[in-house]
Structure formats: structure tokens, C-alpha cells
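User: Structure please.
Assistant: Input sequence and predicted structure:
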Amino acid sequence: MTLPIIEAILRGDFRPTLIKETVPAEELSQMMHTLRQAKERTNLIELEKDITHALDSHSQVGLQYKRDKELKDTITRYLKSVTPDYYTREYKHVLKNIFPAPEINTPYLRMYKTILELEKVRTVCAILDLHSTMQDDSFIFTEVKELLNIIKGYCKELKEEKYQSPVTSLLRNMLIELYFSLFISFQKIIYSKKAIDIEDDFEDFVYYTYGTYPSKDVTERFREQAEKAKQENRNIQKTEKETEQTEDKQTVHLTKAEKFLEETTCYEFLKMPLIVALEAQDEKMRKAKALRLIETMLENPAHAAAMLEFLDFYGWIKNKYEKGYTYTKYDEFCTRVVMGYENGRTFKKYRTALHSTSQSLKDYQHPEYIEQVKEEYTNIKNEI
């Protein structure tokens, strides 16, 4: 990510020495009208659209915004097949009016002040938008660090300029505010990376930019806004935590029987003949009885194997839903919905052991369930 408006002011058509030649008064008036609208934007897409409309003929904003969008589109496609690294959610904080502004006594100075403020806001919004898309701390740390170094480079360039104008002061102040807006917004990630080469002291940064330390008033305004940002973070995190706790309380935790019924919806378990016969007229009561039946059978896999055989669950699936259905697929399905194992066919041992005398299945043989499930079914049907 680059700063196209800064580039245009330092090296392009927006240089103070060229501005009156490149932007006629009428065009300036129309430009300022569009830029005033842009200042009210809270949506990044709309903000970029207004900035592009106003400034694209005199800068590279349109090209830069297009590149940023292409990067996001590439990331979105990339994320379909890759799990991102650790993600720390960050929040937008834009510092403003930290430094005393030079007197705005011409339309051109007013334009500079406006477009620099927009460059600052748009940059913070865009990098946060990129972070929320990528959701990868390592990736965004590299992007933020590179951007901070670019800003430091601009500050150094401005310090070395012999001629200092009101535009230079506006530009320098904006760059410092942008630097620390980004730093505060991504502070948790920056500190987690132990990035000792990133300047985090406001007063020292101002000294190396201006050649003098900031006044007490400037330092106090910075600290107030930095502390306000921290408090806003705490409030947001508290609200999010409370919301998550509320959602957790509202979440319905399914019983094993309810989960079984949910996972067998694809085969319409509640429409099986013997299930319908539990309560032919009242669907709500039928479901309640079915859940009692399922709760009983899920006592252990052998019990479930006998009950599902009694209900003819396999025949129901094969005859109504999957003509080529095999016991292999049935055992895999029941291993998952009855026993909770994602892979394997362990259920097969309990199913085949019902009518087997094989010693190899000795530990799985519970033929008593064959008659027991019939009695359980009758009792639940008759509400005994």
C-alpha cells in the first residue's frame, strides 16, 4: 500500500508550486464540494469513490485503490483453500488535531487540509479492511511495518527541505498523526511481534521529524486521544464478550437424542412407519415419543443396533432413498450418528453380533436386546 495523495503533493501535480496552474478556480470549487461529501463517508468504498472522482486526474489514487482491490480479491480466492494464521481483531483509531494547524487563509490551503485528512482516514480504514479480509497477524504486520517505514521516509524528506511552507506543516502533522493512528490501531500485533525497530515514542518521533520536542499541549492532546482509544477498545471488547455470553446462553444445546434426530433428517427418520405409528395424529407428540425411544436405544451401541433393526432403518433408507445402499455405507453412517465416530465401521460389530454365535464377536453379543426393544417400543407407544 502506498500514499498516492502524499506522492502527488511531494512530486506530482499537487505540488504547492504547481497547484494554481493545474487546478483552476472553478475546478477547485467543484473538487472541494466532492471532498466535503467524502469527509462524511463511513463506508470505505464510498469514500474511495469520492476521492477518486475529485482527485484522480491529478494523482494516482484510482490506480492505487484498484491495486488494493485486486490484492483483496486475490486474498479472498487464496483463503478458500488456506487456513490463515493467528488473527487478532483490531479497531480503527484516527488521531486528529494533535498539532496546532497553520492559518487556513486560502481555498488552496483548505483543499490541502481536506485531502490530507481524507488520505489519513482512508489509509487507516483500508489497512484495517485488508486485515479483516486476510485475518492473518503475520501478513498484516508486514504491511503495517512497511507503511510505517514509508511514512518515516516522507517525514525525513520533509525535514531536509529548506523551504518550509504552510502546506509542509500540514503535511508533516498529518504524517505524524497517520503514523500513530496506525500504530495505536495495530498496537497489539506490533508488540506481539517484538518489533523493536518500530518507533513507538511520540515525543521522540516528533523530535526526529521537527528537530525539537513537542510542546506540553501537543503531548497532552496525543496522550488523551491515545488513552481514549484504549478505553474504546476495552469498551468494544467488553460489549463483544457480553454479546458472545448472551448468544451462548441462548444457544440450544442438543441432547444426544436430538442430535441423532437432526443427523438423520436426510432420511426422514420421523416418517418411518413404526415411528409414525407411535402417534399418528399429533406430530409434536410423535417427535417427543421418538426422542424417548432414541434416548433409550442410545444407552449403548448394541441396544441401538437392535432398535434400528426392529424399526428397519436400513430397509427404509435402501428402499426409499438409496437403491444401491449397502451395509458398508449403513455401518459407516451409524458409526457416526450412534457412536459419534467420524470415521470407521465399528457399528458393524454390534449389528452383526445380534444374531451371531461367533466367539470373535463375544464382547459385542447382546441378543437380549432383540426382544427388549419390542417391549420398549410398545411401552412408549402406549405411554406406559
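The chain is about 65% helix and 0% strand.
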